[in-house]
Design goal:
The chain is 32% helix and 21% strand. With 426 residues, it is α+β, with helices and mostly antiparallel strands. The protein has two domains: 142 residues, Chloramphenicol acetyltransferase-like domain (Chloramphenicol Acetyltransferase); 208 residues, Chloramphenicol acetyltransferase-like domain (Chloramphenicol Acetyltransferase, 2-Layer Sandwich), CATH 3.30.559. Strands 8, 9, 10, 11, 12, 14, 15 and 16 form an eight-stranded mixed β-sheet that branches. A five-stranded mixed β-sheet has the order 5-6-7-2-13, with helices on one face. Strands 1-4-3 form a three-stranded antiparallel β-sheet, with helices on one face. A hairpin with a 4-residue loop joins strand 3 and strand 4. Helix 5 crosses helix 6 and helix 6 crosses helix 12.
Length: 426
């Protein structure tokens, strides 16, 4: 249901979780950045934000706490204002303390960045907004950019279908599937001082990476997941545990190709490729095969719909609906701590290729993506490609760099050139 009388609307299934879990040491915020070919004009960028936002009312909201659930209502506060960039991105949103905006915009030299609280939208929805924003900005700079290739017409009225709760639409199945996975190796590290987000980016050639992945019979995402699993496994081995745990990833999957929906809100599920060191020593080709077959087996319409149905059934449980909101949030937090977070060593997200109209291509050098601080003290990994450049970003509040080091070393050993940049001081 897009909206309800009075202009307020329900949070979707994923948004309910992110809103309940958000706290000072966990940031369900992610960032997309475009490195432009020319220095950014902050005045024109602010005009672009002001022009674009009315076309995307689902991003112009704030979260309010009702008696039983959080809900969205239109945000009429001033802003959001374009700001000079900050050293530590993806700060937690503080909507419980009166922070009005759930999106933020930054600039630094040639970089334009947008941060989004995950309750608003997943990466696919946010990239539609960001692509349109960049198009409007380039028009204000004097370039002709057509409304095509995923750029929406900001002079047209918003499409109500873009605010569809697609989880509810497809949350019906004969059998519901839940999450019953064993705990995974936590891959924790020593914490930095609050809130110090260490960001390490590796820039690689898409063509080189694709050729290597193809040699293993895998997609780019499958290959990178295998490299990450191997890197985490090496880290666990160094700790000398008597009994080693599974090494597992949370890999978000865009559901729109499987369940047609124009929604710009959240519409993702997570798959869990994993290896179990207690079964023996995996060669790297065996890890790639494990990931490849797991992804192909579990990314199927029937199983995913049953999982959606399980999540929606829990949300619609009558007894749960009658529990007051503060108690419900505590219960969701405890449930995520014990069940939702423990099955994963870390997250790997890859929204894929950032496509723009041909007229925009020459104005953008590369794209970047950063995930905010995880629920525990570990680094997450995010990838996005533009042209022949894939940007792989590790971000977290941990001091050590073992996982990132092993990851990029593996790529170099495979003949993939990696250019590494970081905001770390040492």
């Amino acid at each position: 249901m897009p909206s309800l009388p009075g202009g307020w609307s329900r949070l979707d299934n994923a948004a309910l979780m992110y809103s309940a879990l958000q706290r000072e040491d966990y940031s369900a915020v992610y960032r997309f950045s475009a490195l432009m070919r020319q220095p950014v004009d902050p005045v024109l960028l602010q005009q672009a934000v002001d022009t674009t936002l009315p076309r995307f009312p689902g991003f112009a909201v704030r979260i309010k706490q009702g008696v039983f659930w959080y809900y969205f209502e239109p945000n009429h506060a001033p802003g959001p204002f374009v700001q000079p960039d900050i050293a530590n991105p993806c700060q937690p949103v503080r909507f419980r303390k009166g922070e009005d905006w759930l999106i933020r915009f930054f600039y630094y030299e040639r970089r334009i960045s947008m941060e989004v609280f995950h309750a608003l939208a997943d990466g696919s929805g946010a990239l539609t907004f960001f692509r349109t924003l960049l198009a409007v900005y380039l028009r204000l700079c004097g370039h002709h950019i057509p409304n095509e290739g995923g750029v929406l017409d900001v002079t047209a009225p918003p499409d109500p279908a873009e605010q569809e709760d697609a989880y509810s639409r497809y949350g019906h199945a004969r059998k519901c599937l839940g999450m019953r996975e064993p705990p995974a190796y936590a891959c924790l590290g020593e914490k930095e001082p609050f809130y110090t987000l260490n960001v390490t980016m590796g820039l690689v050639s898409v063509a080189q990476l694709k050729a290597v992945a193809k040699g293993y019979g895998a997609s780019i995402t499958e290959y990178l997941a295998a490299v990450l699993l191997e890197s985490i496994q090496i880290r666990q081995r160094r700790e000398g545990r008597r009994k080693e745990k599974q090494v597992a990833l949370a890999v978000p999957i865009n559901l729109r190709p499987h369940f047609p929906s124009p929604t710009l809100r959240n519409f993702i599920l997570t798959v869990r490729p994993a290896i179990d060191p207690e079964l023996g020593d995996y060669t790297f080709p065996e890890i790639v095969a494990q990931v490849h077959h797991h992804m192909r087996l579990h990314i199927n319409r029937v199983e995913m719909q049953a999982t959606i149905a399980g999540n929606v059934a829990l949300q619609n449980n009558l007894l749960l609906q009658l529990v007051p909101s503060p108690i419900k949030n505590l219960a969701l937090d405890l449930s995520y701590r014990l069940i939702g977070n423990r099955p994963y060593s870390t997250t790997l997200t890859n929204p894929g290729v950032f496509k723009v109209p041909a007229a925009m291509e020459e104005h953008i050098e590369r794209m970047e993506m950063i995930l905010g601080q995880s629920y525990t003290a570990r680094s997450n990994c995010a990838c996005i490609s533009y042209g022949d450049t894939l940007t792989i970003t590790f971000a977290g509040i941990v001091k050590d760099t073992d996982m990132e080091r092993e990851f990029f070393r593996h790529l170099v050993r495979e003949g993939i050139h990696v250019k590494v940049i970081s905001n770390r001081k040492e």
